[in-house]
Amino acid sequence: MPVAIITGASKGLGRALAEALAERGWDLVLDARTPQPLQEAAEAVLSKYGVQVRALPGDVTDGTHRARLVAAARELGGVDLLVNNASALGTEPLVRLEALPLDGLRRALEVNVVAALGLVQEALPLLRQSPAGAVIDVSSDAAAEAYETWGGYGASKAALDQLSAVLGEEEPGLRVWVVDPGDMGTDLYAAAVPDDDGPRPDPASVVPAFLRLLDRRPASGRYGAPALLEQR
């Protein structure tokens, strides 16, 4: 069975993607900072699909934790897919750049960029051994568009986009996809803009876009989920 590592997998997009891959028979290594929601997500996947699941709570900025994630995947057979989905806003709620705490910006960069690269580096030997090795880095439209108060988070995602583009050039044997999932109703968004209580799409609604990448395996690059969903 193919094996995927998914960070930020206790809820939202990460959990929805985990369930979709498990339905296809993937074994999973799941990460999140909070143990109980992560364990609940793992148990739900296990009870529905019967695949092998390893749930490892921890912080992706911790190198020891990242090594444990890859070691768990190795025990399951390797790493065929790495999904860097865990994200940090930098400050909650979001604020204008003039008020952005520099420690918050550092946290966003550490989680969204440095930890993502650290996990890629840890997993690369196994990804290279997979006949279909792939990395999915979850980005944001804030990486490409200027939205008031989204400067720190957007800058970190823009850095992730560039890092991913270079990785795709350096690792031609892999697929490295950056995915902008578009608008979603997530805890991250609620924390970013708590006053915006308008309805937003369920994260599960964009999962088919990720599956389309895995099915069609286009060239490494940046993709928007809405455009992928429109393809026939």
UniProtKB/TrEMBL annotation:
Top-level taxonomic group: Bacteria
Keyword flag Oxidoreductase: yes
Pfam families, per the entry: adh_short
Keywords: Oxidoreductase
Family: Belongs to the short-chain dehydrogenases/reductases (SDR) family.
Name this protein carries in UniProt: SDR family oxidoreductase
Source species: Streptomyces tauricus
